[in-house]
Every structure is written in C-alpha cells, then in structure tokens.
Amino acid sequence: MAIECLVLGAGQEVGKSCVVVTINGKRIMFDCGMHMGYKDKRQYPDFDLIPDSCDFTSSLSCIIITHFHLDHIGALPFFTQNRGYSGPIYMTYPTKALAPIMLEDYRKVMVDRRGEKERFSSEDIVECMKKVTAVDLKQTVQVDKDLQIRAYYAGHVLGAAMFYAKVGDAAILYTGDYNMTPDRHLGAAQIDRLQLDLVITESTYATTYRDSKYVREREFLKAVHKCVEDEGKVLIPTFALGRAQELCMLLDDYWERMNLKVPIYFSAGLTIQANLYYKVLINWTSQKVKDTYVTRNAFDFKNVCSFDRSLINAPGPYVLFATPGMIGGGFSLEVFRQWAPCEKNLVTLPGYCLAGTVGHKLMSAKRPTQIRLDEDVQIDVRCEIHQLSFSPHTDAKGIMDLVKFLSPKHVILVHGEKPKMAMLKERIESELAIQCYYPANNETVCISSTHHVEAGASDAFLQSCLCPNFKFSKPNSERDSDLDDSNKRTIVCDDRVAQGILTLEKNQNPKVVGQNEFMEVLGVENHGVKFAHCCPIYLPDSESRDASGRSPSALLRLIFEQLSRAFPGFDLHDCQEQIRIRSFVGSFCSKEKCLHRTDVSLHSRVTHLCCSWSLADEELAWKVLSIIKNLELANAS
Ligand SMILES: [Zn+2]
Ligand SMILES: [Zn+2]
Ligand SMILES: [Zn+2]
C-alpha cells in the first residue's frame, strides 16, 4: 500500500498549485491553479504527466479546489473545457460562488486589456462551474464507495478550506493556503485531531515569525493617512476578493474613527459585487464579524464607493483599490504608470509578490528607481512604497503548530520558496521527528500508507491480560522520616504486562495467543531441558540386621518419609516404583551402565535411584538428592 504524490505545481515555488495524489488506487487532484508570473506553457500545470492522460475523467476520481485564488483554480476551466475532464469537482459553497467572479475578472484583464491569447471564454467558466459540487465544512462526502473527503475551515480567504481524504485506512490532509491566526474579517483555521499518513501543507512563510498584527496594521493606516493629508493619492493593488475586503474593513473603520472625508474607491464593479457576496456569506467570516452582524454588517462600507475612470487624474487626495494585485497588469498597472512619478503618492504592496510582476520588481528596488515595462515603456518611480507586512498566510510558527497537532507520519511542503522550505524541512524532521519532503514541480514522492488488520485473541491470552501484577513500594523512608505513620502508606501499582504471540495462519485472521498455547497452534511438542542424575544409595553391610533383606519398595517408603519431613509443604507422590516432587522424578535404576551415573565405586552393597528434573526445579532437585545421599538407613525400621 502506498501514497503517490505527483506535484504538478507549487513545487519549490508559489503559483499554479496542483498536486495529484494517488491513495490506494484512487487518484485525486488537489487544486488546479495557474501561475500569474508566466505567459508561456509554464503558466499551467503539465497535465500530460498524469497517468492515463488520454482520459482524465477515468484517471481521476475527483478534483478538489481549496479556495478561489487563481493560483489554486486558474487552470480549472481550461482543464474541464479544453482537456475534457468531466468527473466530479468539489469546493465549498463560498468558493463556488466567488470563483467565477475571480476567473471572469482575470479573463477580462488578460484578454481585453493585455491582448493575450484567450485560454478560456466566459462560457467556459460558466460551463465549468456547472460541474462543481459544493460542500459544507465538516461534511463527509462519499465520492465513491472507497473515497471519503471532508472540508475544514482554513481562514485565509472567504470559503478557503483544508481537505481531508481517506481511502481504506490511508488518510491525508491537503491544507491549501491557511491562516492560523484570525484576521479582521476571517477566523483561524480549525481542524480535528486526525489520524494521518500525510499532510501536504503550504509554506509561503516557512521561516517568518510575525509579531502582533495590530502594530503592522497601524503602520499601514499611518502611511495611508499621511499620504492623503499631504494631498497624495493612494493606490492599493489587490485582487477582487480577499485582501480587498480585509483592507476595506480596516480603512472604513479608521475613516469612521478619524472622521476622514477623503474618498475611498473600488476600481471595478466586480469588487462591489464581491462585497455583496461577503455580506451574504457572513457565516464563513470571523466570530467578531458574526457577533456584530446583528447591529451592523461589517461589509456595509460607509466610505467606499465605485470608481470612474475619469477620476484618475482628478485633483485632490483619494484612496483607490485596483485589480489585479501585485500590479501584474490591467488597471492597477495603468494607474501605477500615471501615479508612480509623483512623490506625494503612495503605492502599497502585499507581503508576497510573484516573480515577473511589477510588484516584485518594486519590492527589491531602492527609490527613486526606474522600471522597464517593455522595449519602449519605462516608468520613473518616485512615489512612496509601503509593503504590507500582514498576510492571510500562516507564519512558520503556525505551520509547526499545525504539523505538531496533527502529527502525521509524513509531511510534504508545497507553495513556498526552495531555500526556506529546506530550512523548515530540517526543523520538522529534527524537532518533530516527522519525515518531510519538498519536491520540485513534476516530481513524485512515494510514501507507504497505513493498512489496519483486525486481529483476534485467544481466551487464554485475554485471561492472562486480566491477571493483576501488583508492585508494592514504600515511600522513601529517609525523606519522609518527619511524616507521621499514617502518611507512610505503601504505594501499590499494577504493572500489567500482556505477553502473547501474534500468529498468522493461512486463510485465517491473525490471532494473539498465550505462550503456552503457541506449541499447540504449531502442533509440536514443547522442547524442554531436563537434568538427570543416577544417585547411588549405599546400603549398610549385610551383617547389619536392620537393613538386610530390605526390598526396593521398603527403601522407597523410607525415602518418602524422610522427604515428607524435609518438605512439609510439598505435594509428594510415591506412585508405584517412583517418587515425584513437582518435575522431580526418581526411580530405581537397573541398568548396568546408566549414562547418568557418575560414581565408579565398586561397593558391593549399592543401589541406584535414577532421577530427572527440569530447569525450574533445579534448586529443589539438589536438596532432594542430598537427602537421598545421606539417608540414615540404620535408624530406619
Ligand atoms: Zn490563496
Ligand atoms: Zn496560494
Ligand atoms: Zn540410572
């Protein structure tokens, strides 16, 4: 039994998340994302590497999408409408509601404004979403008779979920993106203590430790406030969903408190529509938002209105949310080109920007700087840049906490940067003693999976388990000398040990049996070590009147009497011509040259008692023998 993980995307990078996991013959695709930083074939996962790629519908048992971010869902319409996958697709209700907005927003940006080749159309998005089955949190879904899946709250963005999948006894968890601490609008990830062979986790911030979020939010608000006070314009490039809502809540709140009148705009109608969804899906937000919902919906932004293009160069300060995030093109880039040369303006960047985006170039550049867009276009960047240091991703502590809590047998890191992943792998292996991997794209990791076998137990074994094994101990007398007697109680503990042998017989269930039964199961006789000694008994001279004519049976009776006196508590038997005490057996030896005889005396009046015993009665046997050797024959009658 094995679990095979083929990483088609987000291997040692962030972007186009896609992991194909085969568990006991069932194949699941987790996420079907695109890479925003590439325009060539690296933009999509290499689906041809999936086994039996001529027919994805029969090759894959299902597709699971964790959340609506394009690096997790961006390639889905292409995969279903262009590559012909028509099997089941699962995602949460909010993801199903919000994903089409996200996909359509992206399609417009790329095709309408950047003039790129269309990978999928609006109809493709609609047709693709028709194939999706929405699931609730903690609802166990039976995909087929062997495969079970379940979603858990992941924080991160509205509707984001971690997914648990189980086939037979093998189980895994794929986290997608998650946050272990609540933010302004969403709660922290929540998961049950599951029995897992494997956890596949994101590792965007594999080595980052974050301090209080409050301080970092204040820095952001201060930067924005200062800019608008100085008559500057603030550009906040974001995607339509997620960060936009969080920052909107933050600003709206601040505007209220500070009584600011400077307008806040949303660039596209789409984002306003997204806010509507957030209002409807209030159940998926943070406890705080839910608690205050009765008096006021936190997504009813008082100070936010939609933007009109003609306002781009209007005089006076304002704040503008524009898509896409990271200034990857589209409207946010258009605005950036016009505002960047002015020192009064401010541009905020998220904590993480993909390689290839303007945001990424700005992150590492010192200002003032120049950014080359293409052959003919170069932008003078003189505006302020503020990098947001709060993020909807978990930090390193959160990843370690989750892995420690779940304690799976193996961990695979995806969705991170290679050097940081290497460091986190070291920590997981050394601190938690869990095997960890961080495969590159198109690599496969194979791990063994759990297979439980039910074993029976014999009655004798069960009975032996019930036998108490008391151990008594007195408290340390020296240390407790000043305690009165009532406190010097004896400590009793029951150290039960069940010892048995696991047997596996052909065509039968395994069974645990007791040690004694085992020989019976094998159908062989017990081999034991036996000791033997042919003990000489020297009889008195023929002249002695008492001993003459003593028959062997009379002699035996004499021995028996003496032994009974020496071992009063023992069960002695003198059946026929033998003496028995436990495993000790003695009988007269008539053999001329007995092998167990050691004396070579040629005494004329000697008889031999051939004795044998097992190892357990070694001590007893030698006591018996010494009594026999020193028999007081003369006194016997
Ligand atoms: Zn995400
Ligand atoms: Zn992601
Ligand atoms: Zn003998």
UniProtKB/TrEMBL annotation:
Keywords assigned: Hydrolase, Nucleus
UniProt subcellular location: Nucleus
Name assigned to this protein: Cleavage and polyadenylation specificity factor subunit 3-II
Residue intervals of the Beta-Casp domain: 244-362
Family: Belongs to the metallo-beta-lactamase superfamily. RNA-metabolizing metallo-beta-lactamase-like family. INTS11 subfamily.
InterPro entries tied to this protein: Beta_Casp, INTS11-like_MBL-fold, MBL, Metallo-B-lactamas, RibonucZ/Hydroxyglut_hydro, RMMBL
Domain Metallo-beta-lactamase intervals: 15-239
Keyword Hydrolase belongs to the record: yes
UniProt-listed PANTHER family: CLEAVAGE AND POLYADENYLATION SPECIFICITY FACTOR FAMILY MEMBER, INTEGRATOR COMPLEX SUBUNIT 11
Tagged with keyword Hydrolase: yes
CDD domains associated with the record: INTS11-like_MBL-fold (cd16291)
Main location: nucleus
